[in-house]
Design goal:
Blueprint: E1 5-9, E2 40-44, E3 59-63, H1 70-77, E4 84-89, H2 93-98, E5 101-106, E6 112-113, E7 119-122, E8 130-134, H3 137-143, E9 146-151, E10 166-170
Parallel strand pairs: 4-9
Antiparallel strand pairs: 1-2, 1-5, 2-7, 3-4, 3-10, 5-8, 6-7
Amino acid sequence: MPPLLFHFSDDPAIERFVPRAVRTPAKRSPGREWLNGPLVWAIDESHQPMYLFPRDCPRILLWRTPQTVAADAELHFGASTARMLAYVEEGWADAISTATLYRYELPHTPFESLDDAGMWVSRSEVRPLRRTEIGDLAAELSAASVELRTLPDLTPLKDLWNTSLHASGLRLRNAVNWNE
């Protein structure tokens, strides 16, 4: 059975998703430059916690993989039994506690998997199947076994990509001192 696919937005009235280029093109590996072009993006159910945040909120999510070594898991998760850790800047705490998001469930066809952290893309227009309002993002994260952690800024976490854990950073261009 194909995974459930979602798109998250602060817009409660999206009737169709039209492919569009990313706002800030990313450096892509050779042959994958097309990922900056016009696409509709979706995330699978397992990875949807990455998008349970206000759109522009910089965040880093961390989780164990089969390749994770015990020392990395212990250092970062400690006694936590959470499936994922989510780090945000303290300055975003109020926005997270007051934001309302809309989770749009999307049909599996015409999406193709990127085989990367649950991301899927469609090159054609997509009409959502249903919309769910989410008003308590912290509770939704907790229900998904995600531990939310705050820091004054995210720069101390830059080395997470050098561990055996999976680290996903979103909207880091908005993070305090990230590009310095």
